[in-house]
Amino acid sequence: MKFRKATREDVYEIVKMIANDKLGRLREDFMDPLPERYYIAFENINNDINQELIVLENETGEIIGTLQLTFIQYLTYQGGIRAQIEAVRIKEDQRGKGIGEKMFNWAIQRAKKRNAHLIQLTTDKKRPDALKFYEKLEFKASHEGMKLHFN
How much is the mean pLDDT over the chain? Predict the structure, then answer.
């Protein structure tokens, strides 16, 4: 398996994975061709040195997973950097094979390489299996997260 930075050509497969669950189907606008706003978002991510959109390929070059890492510089923790992991998805026919754990281990090592002092994530309360998975990886529910949606 190979981790690599996503390219514009990967956007369709990435959005397909993101849209392929009960919550993603409600939020995403997956169609062929994809709406241009996904490609605009990709360009914004790709041009930001603190964003890394990653894909995981199997031995045949098929994309089987994706994640996004954001590196946040801040003043607390003596000017520390934290890594935020988002949009972790595994292709449906590849789930249950330990790929998610490999992806998180890769992301943790990548965050350490970028000198982050922690990696964090949020998960929707409607995803209890995901919560159990993150706890198995030793993530701790140390804070209460809150959101304010604008639309």
Answer: 95
* β-pair partners for 81: 73
Task: For domain 2-136, give its CATH number from 3.30.470.20, 3.30.230.10, 3.40.630.30, 3.40.50.1580.
Answer: 3.40.630.30
Q: Rounded to an integer, what distance in angstroms lies between the CA atom of residue 137 and that of residue 84?
A: 15
Contacts 24+ apart (CB under 8 A), 116-121: 116/71, 116/80, 116/81, 116/82, 116/83, 117/77, 117/80, 117/81, 117/82, 118/80, 118/82, 118/83, 119/82, 119/83, 119/84, 119/85, 120/82, 120/83, 120/84, 120/85, 121/84, 121/85, 121/86, 121/88
pTM of the model: 0.92
CA separation for the pair 102, 46 (Å, rounded):
23
Provide the 3-class DSSP secondary structure of residue 40. Answer: helix
Tens digit of each residue's pLDDT (9 = 90 or more) over 93-109: 999 999 999 999 999 99
End-to-end CA distance of the chain: 39
Round to whole Å and give the CA distance between 1 and 73: 30
**Which residue has tokens 């992806």?**
103
